[in-house]
Each structure stands twice: as C-alpha cells, then as structure tokens.
C-alpha cells in the first residue's frame, strides 16, 4: 500500500481565503455526511475548507472541533486503494472504520458531475494530535483540473504541516503505524514524519514560538498549528497580502459605514444622514434606525429616565429629613 499526504482540511469559512488570494471553488455538498466544502486546488494536492450543514453521525467530531474554534483539523492521506489502506491500518492496530463511499456534486465545463470518494477513518483513540484518514479518489478528473490551479497569490501546493505537541517524541510509535517503521526521524527537539510527500513536523510550543515569531497558536494545548504552502514568488505573494490588508483597513475606515446620527429628545426615532453621502451611506443611516428599533432604545431610555427621576426624589427626600 502507498499512503501519502493528499490534502489538508480546515474547519472554517471560505470568504477570508479569497481575500488571501486563493481561487476558492464553489461550495459542494456531501449530503451523506451532512457537510459542505470549498476547495483550493494545487498541482498535486489541495486545501479543503469544511463546514457543517446538518448534524449526522459522520460529522460529530467536526462539530465538536468547530465549538472549540475550528482551524486545521485533519490531514487526508492519498492511497492506491481504500481497501488496501483498511487492511494495512487494521494490521497495524489502528482500528480503522470500514471504507465509506460518498460523492459531491461539482460543475465541470458547464456540466454537473459527481466527484466520488472512498475514505477510511481512524478513531480518535489513535489520533497523534492531528487527525488522519485515507481518501481514495474514484474520479480525480473532477477534482484536479488545470483551470482551478491558478491562484492570484501564486500558491502551488502544500509544503507541510506543523503540530504542537508536548513532548513530540511521544508520538513516534503511533506515527510509524501510519507511515511505516523508520518513517519518523529526530530533528533536534522536533520529530518529523515522512508521509511520502510533505513532512509533518512535531515541535514543542517553545520551539514553535522561536521558529514562527509573531504567529500565535490558535489553541492552548497540543494541536495541529500551521499549514505551510509553496508559492511561485514570496515577494509577489507578500505584495498581494499587503494590498489586501490595506483594502480591508480602508473598508473598516470607510466613513459611509458610520453615517447616521440619532436625534435625542424626541418621542420617536429620527436619524440624520450626511447630505453628501451615496446609496451605501444612506443604507448605513437606515440601519442605525433599524438597530435602534430592534433594541428597543426608546423604551430603555424611558425606563432609565424614570429610574433616574425616582432616585432623585429619594435623594431629595433623604436630604430634607436629615
């Protein structure tokens, strides 16, 4: 059996990744699994953003992962066959689930096709911090397409995965059940698992902080912490990300978003808009009024004023009797 890293799964939403310069594929649905995804296809692997559409027995662990904040969840391993992987993992003592078949509708060249998969899942009891499962592509022509590989940020593939673990060496034996004896080497304080394609590096939190200064881990305990990607040009990618950051800052500081000031002292809600704004600014002003109605601002103000006047009467009465 050949088992190698095939793609990475992050439980998150897709909008932010478009801003990072990825060509994000339209949402697809795994109806049997109750999940939906967006893909970012690279030359020989891909990055999958996964979300929950409907609770099912197949997505319980991912629902729990979302409650904890989401993030990098799994590494999917490509294989020559799901049945081969099942037999090999069973012999290694990993207690795999039987192969599971499912599909996902995908539009290819204007036609609706169905990408088909068979996966083998390993239970959490044998999860070396990062979750592994095997994914056999029955219809790779509906996933790996040259027109989907073009990303504005120049991304071309997955370089590797970094896992925070204390201590890293405790996972050596479990990782070798997946990738074979001798597949894990020691690199200083770290261990590195050779998956056949991209490496998976395990390191302490202190080593992570030294290697990636300024990149704060998402979680406090052991967890898959970082996904590294290969790009055509680091400088071009950096320029695109800087430009995206400036656009985001400009959007946040757009005065039209803050248009609309309420008049006080009236028996109703009245919002003043700047006369020189545009449709977006007027919509923001209308939204201010809407939010005031929704939050019962007038009723709350009246109650606060009644309480204030009541306190004044009590203070005045106490002053007169003292």
Structure report:
The strands form three sheets. This protein has an eight-stranded mixed sheet, with helices on both faces. Strands 10-11-12-9-13 form a five-stranded mixed sheet. A two-stranded antiparallel sheet has the order 14-15. The chain is 30% helix and 30% strand. It has eight helices and 15 strands. The chain folds into two domains: 3-236, 2,3-Dihydroxybiphenyl 1,2-Dioxygenase, domain 1 (Roll); 255-322, no CATH class. The longest helix has 25 residues, at 297-321. It is α+β, with helices and mostly antiparallel strands and 322 residues long. The model has no long low-confidence stretch (mean pLDDT 87). The chain has helices spanning 15-19, 60-67, 82-91, 172-179, 205-211, 234-252, 279-294, 297-321; strands at residues 3-11, 28-30, 35-41, 46-52, 71-79, 100-108, 111-121, 131-137, 155-164, 184-187, 190-193, 200-203, 223-231, 261-262, 271-272.
């Amino acid at each position: 059996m050949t088992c190698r890293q095939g793609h990475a799964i992050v439980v998150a939403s897709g909008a932010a990744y478009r801003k990072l310069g990825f060509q994000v594929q339209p949402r697809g649905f795994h109806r049997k699994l109750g999940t939906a995804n967006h893909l970012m296809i690279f030359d020989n692997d891909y990055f999958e953003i996964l979300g929950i559409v409907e609770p099912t027995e197949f997505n319980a662990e991912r629902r729990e992962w979302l409650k904890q904040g989401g993030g990098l969840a799994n590494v999917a391993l490509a294989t020559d066959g799901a049945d081969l992987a099942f037999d090999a993992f069973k012999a290694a003592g990993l207690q795999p689930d039987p192969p599971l078949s499912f599909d996902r509708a995908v539009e290819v060249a204007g036609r609706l096709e169905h990408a088909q998969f068979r996966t083998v899942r390993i239970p959490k009891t044998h999860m070396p911090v990062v979750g592994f499962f095997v994914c056999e592509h029955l219809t790779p022509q509906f996933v790996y397409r040259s027109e989907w590989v073009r990303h504005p940020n120049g991304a071309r593939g997955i370089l590797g995965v970094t896992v925070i673990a204390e201590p890293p060496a405790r996972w050596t034996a479990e990782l070798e059940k997946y990738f074979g004896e001798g597949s894990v080497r020691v690199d200083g304080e770290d261990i590195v698992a050779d998956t056949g394609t991209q490496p998976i590096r395990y390191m302490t939190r202190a080593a992570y902080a030294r290697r990636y200064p300024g990149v704060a881990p998402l979680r406090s305990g052991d967890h898959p912490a970082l996904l590294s990607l290969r790009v055509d040009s680091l400088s071009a990618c950096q320029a695109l990300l800087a430009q995206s950051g400036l656009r985001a800052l400009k959007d946040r500081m757009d005065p039209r978003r803050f248009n609309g000031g309420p008049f006080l002292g009236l028996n109703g809600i009245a919002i003043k808009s700047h006369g020189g704004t545009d449709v977006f600014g007027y919509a923001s002003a209308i939204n201010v009024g809407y939010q005031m109605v929704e939050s019962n601002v007038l009723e709350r103000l009246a109650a606060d004023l009644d309480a204030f006047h009541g306190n004044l009467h009590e203070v005045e009465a106490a002053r007169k009797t003292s």
